[in-house]
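Researcher: We plan to redesign the surface later, but first we want a full-length starting point. Tokens attached.
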């Protein structure tokens, strides 16, 4: 009788009719339906249904950006049911959501929903910069040596120009003593031949970079307040968290140099972990802070993906697709 009343009755409509049917009196037999009420439960019109359409049907984005589409449910045959949305086929490391998640149809007007695909940026971690050791060796003060020679030559020339009086001899003697003192300071001061620079205190320890992803390394630099003496000096190193970062036991600052570098090796961590790196020499300790971080979440891979958005109402479902390209 349902088909005689509405030849286009589909599975969903038949199920709705049964759901609205009621048992009649016991004298009519158990399990019979009141077809009047069942037929009244049917949507008005013949071939009642809905259609789903996309707009636009494709998009191109960069990883980390969202893609937005519109999906529309259009009723036909006076369809007045609620359509619930679902989304599938999103790229790895992304999410797909439809808002609102369901739309009621009034039998005449289309209803829209917004499909948003949220992607994840791909992290590009540059390698930690490598710092070459810097040696600042002191240079001989050649300018002072030259000045000594000029003074000496000038004094010699003046001595030969005329006969000297006692006063002139005194002046020349004082000048000669000054020249000798300057020359001694030139040849016997710091950096001269056969001398060692005085001991220099530990000035600082620095790290570059100061934050690394676990498994990568950082370069440490110890600096002195002067230059290392002959034979160099040994600076002791330590880490307060060797499970996250390790350093060599010591580093040597070469003779005549003021700095030396060392490598800080790190291990994988599950949360951001601070590590204190310390350097000690001659009773002086300097520290630097290194932050070891977990690896970033992987981004959405590049590629072209097909998303499927499905609208469901009861036992009736219709789907549409969107194509999304991720650079």
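Model: Full-length starting sequence:
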């Amino acid at each position: 009788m349902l088909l005689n009343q509405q030849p286009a009755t589909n599975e969903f409509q038949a199920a709705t009719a049964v759901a609205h049917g009621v048992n009649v009196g016991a004298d009519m037999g158990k399990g019979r339906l009141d077809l009047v009420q069942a037929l009244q439960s049917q949507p008005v019109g013949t071939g009642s249904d809905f259609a789903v359409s996309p707009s636009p049907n494709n998009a191109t984005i960069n990883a980390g950006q969202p893609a937005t589409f519109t999906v529309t449910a259009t009723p036909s045959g006076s369809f007045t049911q609620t359509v619930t949305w679902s989304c599938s086929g999103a790229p790895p490391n992304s999410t797909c959501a439809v808002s609102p998640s369901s739309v009621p149809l009034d039998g005449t007007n289309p209803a829209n929903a917004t499909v948003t695909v949220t992607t994840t940026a791909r992290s590009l971690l540059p390698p930690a910069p490598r710092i070459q050791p810097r040696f600042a060796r002191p240079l001989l003060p050649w300018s002072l040596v030259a000045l000594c020679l000029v003074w000496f030559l000038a004094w010699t020339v003046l001595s030969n120009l005329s006969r000297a009086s006692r006063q002139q001899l005194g002046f020349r003697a004082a000048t000669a003593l000054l020249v000798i003192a300057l020359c001694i300071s030139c040849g016997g001061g710091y950096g001269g031949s056969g001398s060692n620079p005085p001991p220099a205190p530990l000035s600082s320890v620095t790290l570059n970079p100061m934050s690394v992803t676990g498994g990568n390394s950082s370069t440490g630099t110890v600096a002195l307040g002067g230059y290392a003496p002959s034979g160099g000096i040994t600076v002791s190193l330590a880490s307060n968290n060797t499970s996250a970062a390790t350093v060599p036991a010591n580093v040597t600052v070469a003779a005549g140099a003021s700095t030396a570098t060392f490598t800080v090796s790190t291990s994988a961590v599950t949360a951001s972990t601070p590590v204190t790196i310390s350097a000690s020499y001659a009773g002086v300790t300097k520290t630097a802070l290194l932050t070891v971080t977990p690896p970033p979440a992987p981004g959405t891979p590049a590629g072209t993906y097909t998303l499927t958005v499905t609208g469901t109402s009861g036992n009736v479902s219709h789907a549409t697709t969107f194509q999304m390209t991720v650079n």
